[in-house]
Design a protein that fits this description.
Blueprint (H helix, E strand, L loop, with lengths): L3 H31 L4 H28 L5 H23 L6 H29 L2
């Protein structure tokens, strides 16, 4: 039978894979806007990004609760902020303000990069220590 330590290691690895997918989707969005792809293509990427982001953040937050993470609230607030940023991009896309999308997508990309390097790293360190 696998131990909680084995579970935590596997969960951390899976979370890292999900981070790569999230970043790839954001880069795909930036590329699509730069290349002036049609609205439907950009919309599909946005849909995937929102759906994947929501699923990833829910999964990560469940892991935090399972590991009694003491900074859960702040970390979850950052997830909410990222989804708010993404939803503003969707609103711009829906209303035809495509000129705003690239700057906002790059801002989200920077925010998520920083979030992974700081908040997610802090949580991964917490899981590895088993505290």
């Amino acid at each position: 039978m696998a131990s909680i330590s084995d579970f935590n290691i596997a969960s951390t690895a899976e979370t890292d894979r999900e981070h790569r997918v999230l970043l790839c989707l954001l880069h795909a969005l930036c590329d699509a806007v730069r290349e002036k792809r049609d609205a439907e293509s950009v919309g599909e990427i946005l849909e995937q990004l929102i759906a994947f982001g929501e699923a990833h953040f829910t999964s990560e937050e469940l892991l935090m609760r399972l590991n009694s993470y003491d900074d859960y609230e702040n970390h979850a607030d950052e997830h909410i902020h990222m989804l708010d940023m993404l939803n503003k991009i969707v609103a711009d896309h829906t209303t035809g303000h495509s000129s705003r999308i690239l700057g906002k997508a790059e801002e989200v990309l920077g925010y998520i990069d920083n979030h992974i390097a700081t908040s997610d790293k802090r949580f991964a360190d917490h899981v590895r220590r088993g505290t």
